[in-house]
Structure formats: C-alpha cells, structure tokens
Amino acid sequence: MSQFLNLLVAGLTSGAIYGIFGACLAVWFRVCNVLNLAVGDFAMFGAIGTAWLVQNAGLPFIAGIAVDLAGVGLAAWLFDWVVLHPAFDRGRGARGIVGVFFYTFGLSLVLEGAARAWFGTDAWGAPVIWSGPALSVLDFHVQRAGILVFALAIVSGLALWAYLRFTVSGRAASACGESTLGARIVGIDTAKFRRRIFIATAVLAALFGIVESPLSGYTYASGPVISLIGTVAAGFASFRRPGRAVAIGLAIGVAESLLGGYVSTSYNDVLLYALLFGIIIFRPEVLGLGAEPA
Amino acid sequence: MSSGTDVQAAAAHQVRRRDPVPLGAGVAVAVAGALVLIVMNGSYLGLTVTTGIGYAIVTVGMVLQLGYSRQLAFSQSVFMGLGAYGTGVLETKYGFGSLESLLAVIGLALVASLLIGAVVTRAPGLALALATLLMPLFIFQLATYSNWLGSFAGINGVLPLLTGGDYTATLVRSGIACAVLLGIATAVVFRVIRSGVGLQLMAMAADERLAESLGVSLRQRRLEVFVLGSVLAAVGGAAIGSVQGIVTPDVLSETAEITLLLMVFVAGRRSIAGAILGAVVIEYLTTSTSFISTNIGTVEGIALLVILIAEPDGVAGAVDRLLGRRTVQWAGSLRAWSAARLPARGLSGHEATERERGAPDLETRDLEARGGGDGGGS
Lengths: 294, 378
Prior knowledge:
Chain A has 294 residues and is mainly α. In chain A, 74% of the residues lie in helices and 2% in strands. Chain A has a two-stranded antiparallel sheet with strand order 1-2. In chain A, helix 1 crosses helix 9 (223-236), helix 2 (39-55) packs antiparallel against helix 9 (223-236) and helix 5 packs antiparallel against helix 8 (190-216). Chain B is an all-alpha fold. Helix content of chain B is 74%, strand content 1%. Chain B is globular, with a radius of gyration of 26 Å. The chains are: A mainly alpha (294), B mainly alpha (378). The interface between A and B is large, with 53 and 43 residues.
C-alpha cells in the first residue's frame, strides 16, 4: 500500500508538470489556434536561467527569479512582435496547419540553441524554495518541492479555468480563437489577447521550471519532451480546456509512475507513449478535435 | 456523346502515359547525383553528399506527404529507422546481401505502413499529427533498450549497397546506387503529382469536404500517401545505414524528425528539387562546418522562422518567384525588341509605339449594361 501511495505521489508531481504545460498550451491555443511548442523551453530557461543568475552572477534568489521571469517575458514579447505580429496581424507568412505547429517549433529550436551556447550541456537546478527533508507519514514520503509543484498546478489550472469561464476578458479571449474576424468586428483586440496570454503562459511555465527543477534538474535539451507531453495532455483536452488539461496531465503522470513501479522501470515511458498512441488512434473522438484549421 | 467522352478520356490517358517529365526528372536527378559523386571521388565531402542523398529520398516523399497533400504526419523518422535497422538486422544476423535486404525492407515497410496507416489515417488532422508525434518517442526508447537491436551502440557492419575494389570505389559506387534510388523516388513522386491522383490530392489539401463531394475517397488517398511516404522513408533509411555502415537509435529519434522537417520546410515543402537540395545542403552544414554544427539548433530555428514569415514556400518558392519575375522581364524585353523591329515590316511608327507600350489588341468602348426583364443585357 505504501509503495502504491509513494508511486501515486511521484506520479502526481510529474503529472502536475505535464498538466500545467498542457494548460498553458490549451489556453493559448484557445485564443489564437496555435500550439506553443516552446512552452517547455520557457520552463527550461526559467530553471537554468535562475540557477545561473544565483550561482554564477551572484544575485539573491528572489532577485534571480524576478530577473529571470522578466527576461522570459521579454523574450516572449519580442517573439510576438517580430514573428507572430507580422504573421497573424499583417497577414504575412505561413498560415493554416503549418502555422499551428511551426512558428513556435522554430522558437523552440532557437531557445534550445541559445541555452546550449549560453549555459552549456550541464544539468542545472534552481535553489530549493521550500527547503528541508521530505515530509513523511509512516512509509509515505513526499518531497516539499513536489507539494509546491502540485499545489501550483492546481491553483494555476483553476485560475486559468476560472479566467476563461467567468471573466469578460476570458470570454473575449475565447472569442478570438472562435473567430478572429468576428472578434475584431465587435471591437476585441485579438493581437493584444494573443500577446498577453503568450507572455503570461511563458512566465508561468518559467515559474514552474524554477519550482520543479530541484526535483529533476534541467539541461538545455529538456524543453521539447516536456512540451510534447504537454501537447498530448492539451490534445486530450481538445486543446482548449486548461482545467481538463491539468487533470489529464495528472493522469498521465500517475500512469507513468505506476507503470514504472509495477511493470518495468526501463519500459515505462515506452508503454505510456504506446498507450497514449493507441488511445489517439483507436478512439480519436476522445480528443474532441474538429477539423484542422484551414 | 458517350463514345466522344471515351475518346477524350482515352486521349487524356495516353497523354498522361506519355508524360515525359517524371521519367526525365528521375533520370536527370540520378545522372546529376552520380556525376557529382564521381567528381568527388570518395572524399569526405562525397560521403556527406551521399548521406544527404539518402536523406533526400526521405524528403522527396515528405514533399508529397506534407507539402502537396498536407498530411501532417511526423512518422518519417520511424520508417527511416525501420529501413536502417531492417537492413542492419537482415545483413548482420541473417546473412542477407545488400540488394536482398533492400528489397526485403521495402516489403516490410509496405506491410508495416499499410497496417499502421490503416489505423493512423483514420485520425483527423491534428489527431494524426499528435499520434505520429508520439511514434518517434516510444520507438526510439524501444530501440535504445533493446539488446537485440544493439541498444545505444546500434548495429555495426551494415553492408554498402555496392562494393568496389577499395574504400573509395565502394563509396562512389554506393553513392551512385543512392543517386539511382533518389532518381526512382523522384520519378515516382513526380508521376503521382502529375496524375489524376495528384489532382485529387491537391483538392484534398485545399478542402477535404470539397474533394469528398467531388468523389475523392479521402481515406484511400490518405492511406496511399502515407504508405508511399513511409516506404520512401524506409528506402532512405536503408541507404543511409548502408552508406554509414552503422545504424544507431539516433536515426529514429525526434531529433532526426526535426532535421527532416527542416530539410523540407527551409528548402521548400512543395518543391522536389528544393527538398533534394535542402537535404544535401543541411546535411553538409550539420557535418562540415564547426560553427554551424555547434549552433545548428539556433541556425535552423532562425532559418525556419525567416522562411515562414518571408517565404512560406521556402527557398525554392523564393527562387521560383524570382525566376518568374525574371521571365516576365525577359518576355517584356523580347516584346520590346520585336516591336522595335516591326516598322521595318510595314507597321507605322505609331502602331509600333502602341505595341511597345503594351496596348491591347482589342479594346471595347462605350458599352452599357441594361438590366430588367428576362432577357436583360447590353
């Protein structure tokens, strides 16, 4: 029983990461019908950037977090201004299914390359926010950073869900994704929503990277896999429901952990990906996806 | 009426059968590739170009799949791995020759892609992309943990496609064999694009509902495109494995898929020539210059973003547009030149000047449109 509980907690911790990245993807896709495949790279910059600022530049931890998050926000704003604005507001560049994937895919490559050039190939971890030994009840152990990650995921998922569901601004953001032209006709600034939510989700992902990195450590190449699992979690939430994406992410994390604990520690990821692949292929209706954007 | 239609259909069929472009393009690609490799005479650059040609076999299939049919599947690296590992296993564990293993791999890829494609292509747009995004992940891990496939070290001792007296001759001959395979792939893809099936694929890419209403069997066409793209990817993988003599899990990783996508998108996803040159040039850049190979991610990312914003059809699209403009300029110059010679043949100076200005041959003036009643008109 204690093994099951420990595996469950480990799964919820890793699932919280997948879930929140899925939520970040879903909320931005809902606004502009583009997948943010760079969300994992923003998390990587959050983790490694903060660690570098604290360990190498000598900044205090809080200042390091603030500078790093500001830098990530600035990078997101710059990307929107240089790439997304001409592509989506001025009608230049590739659109449709190519635009859905490849703008942020390009950004992911740039961020990964920049991180490799700047921080090298070592694994980095930001300092622990809530330090101390693992909390234990009988044989049941949980890392403090894990509790923070899980709590932050739940709070962020609920906040994003409530924003979209209950606020006028959230409904306007959803309208942008439903029909850009219609939203503009009724006076919604679609570019503003796209930019603000892109920056907000980038900063949120970076914050998660900072909180989670003491558990797993990040290298320059950590981003794409996180983004991919986040994409799968968002996909199971129709790419539009951040609350459900968090729940799906948690389920994926728990499944991964239980497969590792009870079936095979080597093949748990293989089995997990094969399971998800099978679900998508044999039951694509569970994704709730319509036709691809034209 | 029916016999007339039959005659027209037969004539159209004959015209299609006699279309010289696919065969001509295939032969041209094979000959050009072979000549380049002969000139390079087994040098390191020749090895790089041969590997690039192996990748080009894959990217030519991707032009049909991603560029022309807009089938967003990310499974090419998996089938490339199937080709490479299939060749390696058959040659090192079962004693197959290189040609036998190539044919066996083609058959294996055909069956595997039919089985996988029959299921995968049921998934609509984004679901297909999502499902095939997962494929490289678990196949890569499966290969790295499998001792039978050599784990991280892979399979060593893969035979070259053709052997010669020494290393140089073997490399040149294998390269020529790869160029011939690329020529065949080019001819096949050109043939599909320029056929009635190609028109159906174009209609599907533009609007699936419209294509379905025109009688196109979406599922069948999706499956055919998936199978052809996958088989070409397997052939490319087999060629790459044969050239390098070793197969490692890297060939079917998501990094390999990213490289393939960049080869197609940066060079031009709708251009076969672009896909071939893109594969060779990017392979050269990733292996031959230390600065670019170190910073390959940044360079590829920036190149991709610039291409997407400035010229979504890639470098090939930009070249096409440039050549199109040049062609218009040349045509204008030719018209001006011929108009300047016309007075000598009896045209008055005024007529010649009008022609130079590009004045229309027929002009209508003072027409009025009148509406009302059944026969309203002018």
